[in-house]
## 1
Amino acid sequence: MSDSPHIPLEDFFRKAERTRVAISPQGTRVAFLAPYERRLNVHVQDLASGSVTRVTHATERDIAGFLWANEDRVLFAQDQGGDENYRLYSVGADGEGTLDLTPFENVQCQIVDELEASPNEILFQMNDRDPEHFDVYRLDVTTGEMTMVAANPGNVQSWVTDHDGNLRVAVTTDGVNSALLYRQTEENEFREVARYDFRESASPLDFSFDDPEELIVASSVGRDRSVICRLDLRTGEEGEVLYEHPRVDVSQILVSRVRRKITGVAFEDDRPGWHFFDDERRRLQETVDAALPGTVNQFISWTRDETKYVIGSTSDRSRAVYHVFDTVSGRLTQLFSSAPWLDPEALRPMEPIHFQSRDGLTVHGYLTRPRGHEDQNGPAPLVLLVHGGPWWRDTWGFQPEVQFLANRGYAVLQVNYRGSTGYGRAFWSASFGQWGLAMQDDLTDAVEWAIASGIADRDRVAIYGGSYGGYAALSGLCKTPELYRCGVSFVGVSNLFTWIDAFPPYWRPFLEMVHEMVGHPERDEARFRATSPFFNADKIRVPLFVAQGANDPRVRKEESDQIVQALESRGVPVSYLVKENEGHGFMNEENQFEFYHAMESFLAEHLK
């Protein structure tokens, strides 16, 4: 199908050699994830000697994440079989003294504040007292001793600390409306200072360095696109707009704790971008970019004194290469590449694209063409790859499955259909009540655009996605069965009634918002039936491949079981892959290999 050099499937999906690098607070060590018995484990490297110590021993499932608690101790999180009930553990940088800090069953833990000023403590939240709500605790990472700091009254969605680690802001929800609560000290009671309909928000990012009663927020209040601005906690009123992008939402700030200032913002347009308020931070970026041209260079970790940084350099054709940048000496030292076996020259560029939907919206996305099908060199078989969420977005950068499919001769089209985040409130809210309707039409319009543009072969188009993307794949096969030769649904929703009914407890507080955004099972029963693939399975007439994790807490296995049984009863070709030790997506390497091998054969058979 292509004259591109054939790259083994495993090279795209094998575990990174070393990834997710973090430098210790004083800069003597770096920690990173690296494979041990095919599972990502935390390793610690001494920067002076170069010696490496593996400090965790996971063999069933990857370590989900980690951070430096202090110079000598690492905190890490792990769930069981993909159930997303993450427990917290700590271990010495020498691999000794592992502690299970949250030895509770069916409880999810999340970090609230690393408490840099208290090197042996963190703030975290967990839902042990009430499965639907998260309370905040202060935790000693060396002993496991914990003290409740704030009991959730039943409506707090998130908590915010000030620069000293004091819990002073809470965001509440009643399922539709949110409120910003504030207290001057932890001894005071919270009081409401602002209230928002869920369609607009002022999301707290950090306390201001200029005024202890001022927040820096990402706000869409009274405007379409989110901007970075100040919010007075005494009055709840917004003040100075620090930055507004002309095309996309902005919701991320760059901060210097040492110099006590906001140094800039980061955003996602067609490609990642930055805007700097601070000359010193701008010069740092320019220095690194000059030394590492042709890649997006992100400052991903730094020492407490902000003199050493870990830089992660990526592109659309390369996984991360990590460097340490010493600002005192000006030295930039390469640590390692996460995937040295992949040659960027053998991979394909990702092109930003846009088109007009049938009702006049400008829809953005990305196109990756296989070698031999550049420009007007003839249409290629196309895989429409639909992102999940659906309130998420595709971004520019290296994606293993995109490069794998392009290497196998397929054009890959990714679409930020209506509802995708980052393009303003109107574009996002245009998705409300439109699962299987206008959202699906955007995907259909994308395929028609690709065909009309000479990119795609009309007779060889597949639709593939995970989570909401899996729903969209099923929906596409029902709504426009003539458009696709086959489909792949990975942990996809098939029945809107059973999907909502099976929400995990910690999603329950958002149920009213889901009813507004997706629909209500009783009020919108007719629409739910019309747009649930399970009730329209009789319209599917092309082969389908379904994959599912048995422990998925978000899209239960029942969703895949239903659609598979419905198609099998009609004799429609359907392949079904279930993994008992996975959840919402496949994490274990051998399961990823099996899934992509099966998908490769499936697409080759049906797109010929």
## 2
Amino acid sequence: MSGTIFFNAIHAPVGAHSSLTLGCKGRLGGLGRELGNPARKNLFIGLENPKGYFEALPFWEGGTDESLRFDHMKEKTEEIQLPLRPFADSAISREFSVGRDIWTAGDFRMEILSPVLPAPDPAKAGYEAQKFAYCPAVLVEITVDNTKCDHARRAFFGYETDGLDGVFQSQYPIGVVNGRATALFTDDPNAIAGCGFSGQDILLQKCIPNLRFGLGTCGMLMFTAKPGEKAVFHMVAAFFREGLVTTGLECSYWYARFFKGLNDVGAYALANFELYRNAILDNAAKFDSPNLNDAQRFQIAHSIASYYNSTQLLDLAGKPLWIVHEGEYRMMNTFDLVVDQLFFEMKMNPWTVRSELELFVDRYSYVDQVHAPGDANTLYPGGLSFNHDVGCRNAFAAPGRSAYECDDKPGCFSHMTHEQLVNWILSAATYTHQTGDNPWGDVPERCFDSMLNRDAADPADRNGVMDLDSSRTVSSSEITTYDSLDASLGQARANAYLVLKSFASYLALVDLIPANRRAEAMKQAHLAADSLVAAFKKNGFIPAILDGSCDSHIIPAIEGLIFPWILGKWDLMKEFLGLLDALKGHFTSIMESGECLYADGGWKLSSSADNSWLSKIYLNQFIARKLLGVNAAYTGVSADEAHRAWLLKKENLEYAWSDQMTSGVAKGSKYYPRGVTSILWTLE
């Protein structure tokens, strides 16, 4: 592996919004439930050295002696015996891939197996299939090679809790349990579970009954490898939250249908350990290809792990709701993430896409009016569109509103009305094309009318470009998903990025609207294509904003091209050869000039903004290489290696996979799910 091995990676069950995160040095990992960041707690994982002290992976650091809160007579300067030492960096190796994270140090080996599994459709899958997939646990296998030692040695895995609930021992399965929230369990009958103020306290404890100590905030499992044997121990990290867990809509976790609590989760996961291993490895193979380079494999594994951490399958009065939280922000089903995570979800579990889209139609849609820029008082018919998200941090927003969008708010936090309209169309069309299921009724035709109305109030003035803003913006204007960028990608009106997505939406609608309107949709597609081609012919590139207000160069001008391909309409692009030539000419121009490249070979989405998003880079890399046929130094392995190097910068290591990068440093969108656009690479 190129770069440091000490980066945090997330290991998460399907739909439980929980994780075991580890990899960074120090107190920066742990077991977390419903967090937008690592738990930032100590993990004590290692093996007794033949010389009698204990060596651990460096996922811990010293701190305040917790016992001082209780023992006020104890000297604060008293030297505390520390039996725990970190393994030398040179002794540690790591193998990180989809579904697996393997750490080796001397005679110690730990393999973490993350449930990279499809989410079965509750309407079709049986009880056992759902129970297996939605079990909220992560599996860990510890191997101790004690074949060259003539005495027994202890391996251990302990974690510091958040201190909100007590830590106690479980008798069956053997384990340590933090309230009703998290736990470690094993099926090794000889294992010892211990509780204490710290991992050091537990390892030093000679009096076994005292391992039931209930005041500390640390729990640990300890395993004994006999002299001369190679011992293998299985354990699981379990998560649970019972009862209602959301507001706005009252939902519980779907997994609560199958499990009564932590002990039930632990016993089931341990009993099915080998079945999980086989299923995880089988599914991991779906994300490999002989054409991938090592930097791509790393980013695919990292991004998939981060995606699962944000997933949440909820039970709304017997109806399953698929929710993906937005990383550190924890906004729910953010629509501009839904449309990018679409490719991964359609590969793994298409029903989740339908769940997301139906929730937007049923509760998070609205009908507005539109106005021209600078004239908020003159309103024209608008139409149907959709909110930016459905809520935040387990709180569902009110119907027709989002957690993010504000009326009459310039810049960030304005509405993304047109963007979310095309996102719904493209997502629904992809779902229907790949499944044959068309549950949308008249919604696509209503979306088409809404698209037309946002182009121009007078049909004679239409050019395939969004020129009118939602009445919800009042005196301001709409923005795009690239909300934190400058006008090159922030402004929605006449934005080249949205024009191509609009073009793709008109093509997509041809299969969704009544036959008597399909020619009208094709006409709009041609108008949008002509607008982009005209801009290219005039400038030699496609300006970010077609009305001339911003001449920045943007890579995402090509982004919408993914949908004619994913929808099986690539042959139809023979009608738009001029558009393909313009997009290829635009892309090669801005890349060969270096305006959209960093010095390290990484991609810069906009020539005028130092804020580049890895998920969008992955998507546009695929489009450039696969669809536009641009195979140059700047589209090759050097770019992939630069982007991997960003993730492995010191400043970024704690947050696992992150999206928004300023000169390669994560400034936002940390601990993020959208990087699964990387799975498109497997199709090249």
